[in-house]
Amino acid sequence: MDKPKNLSFTLIAAVVGFMIAIQFQTVKKPEERDTRDVWQLREALLKEKELQSNLLSEIRSNEEKLSAYESKRKQSKEQALRDTLKELKTEAGLTEVSGPGITLHIEPVIEDVQLGTPVATTVVSPELLKRLLNELNMYEAKYVSIDGQRIINTTVIRDINRETKIDGHTIRTLPVEVKVGVDSMNNAEKLSNQMKVSKARDEFFAESLRLNVSSPSPNITVPAYENPIRIRHMEPIKEGGGS
Amino acid sequence: MWLPLVGLVIGIFLGLLTEISIPEEYSNYLSIAVLAAFDTLFGGIRAHLQNIYDEKVFVSGFFFNIMLAASLAFLGVHLGVDLYLAAVFAFGVRLFQNIAVIRRILLTKWSTNKEKIEKN
Lengths: 243, 120
What we know:
The complex is a heterodimer.
Chain A: H1 3-28, H2 38-75, H3 77-92, E1 97-108, H4 126-138, E2 143-146, E3 149-151, E4 157-160, E5 163-166, E6 169-170, E7 176-181, H5 185-196, H6 199-206, E8 209-213, E9 217-222
Antiparallel strand pairs in A: 1-7, 1-8, 1-9, 2-3, 2-7, 4-5, 5-6
Chain B: H1 3-18, H2 27-49, H3 55-79, H4 84-119
């Protein structure tokens, strides 16, 4: 065997060895076989179950703690204050309210619009809105919003430069949606019926507007009042002053 | 005579050290290629022992066999027929034949050597 023969043989043998090694590594990969017998498996299962029961008891104790804290918190003064604050906020109109109620739509009277003449630009006069609000309040409406603006005790509705404004929000386009929330579904039905026969409809019609009253719905969302409430003429009583 | 063996060992060593592993899908091709390489290797050894060794035949046979086996496996995969079994069969049979021939040659060599020693 002279040299070049041997050399090529060696090279090819090296290549073959390389291939074998790679193949070996590729095939070898999924090693880890589970060789435990039944008893070992049972033991492992037992261990896991113990762990599980431990975890369960831990969860239970944590939940107990949690409920204890919860009941403590409920009885505390802080919670009472929080509840009161929440109530007051709801009453003042700072929270979104959803419940039974009706929806009113103020629309232009299409039949009244004459061809060629422009549609009246003044949308709804503030006087009309005020009358509508009074009427709604008369029939025990609790939460009212006009065109997405919550009406609260200090809300002003007025005419500024021939624009109807509700607390700085301008009513520009018709139809205007008025959402009215009440206490119960019963009241909602009453309100709906009363609004259907109310004077307000005639007054709106006199200004070429139509007031559509929806049937009572169990779920109406009245948005929260967005602007900050400024209190100017009220002061907190100083403590310790005596009465 | 020992040099090829050393080459084989070096190759295995290199392969194990580099820790290359090919994807599962291609391991089929590689196994076929390894088989073809083995066949060629043993064919070369046999030819050498029979004194009909030809370098060109050996080297070209090595690469050609590998390529043929791989392409056969490839075709088989795409035709849905396990064509690589054909390659396995062919190479397996040839491997056995080659090894048998090598064994006989070695046996005769060994016995003639023994006779020579006995005569002496």
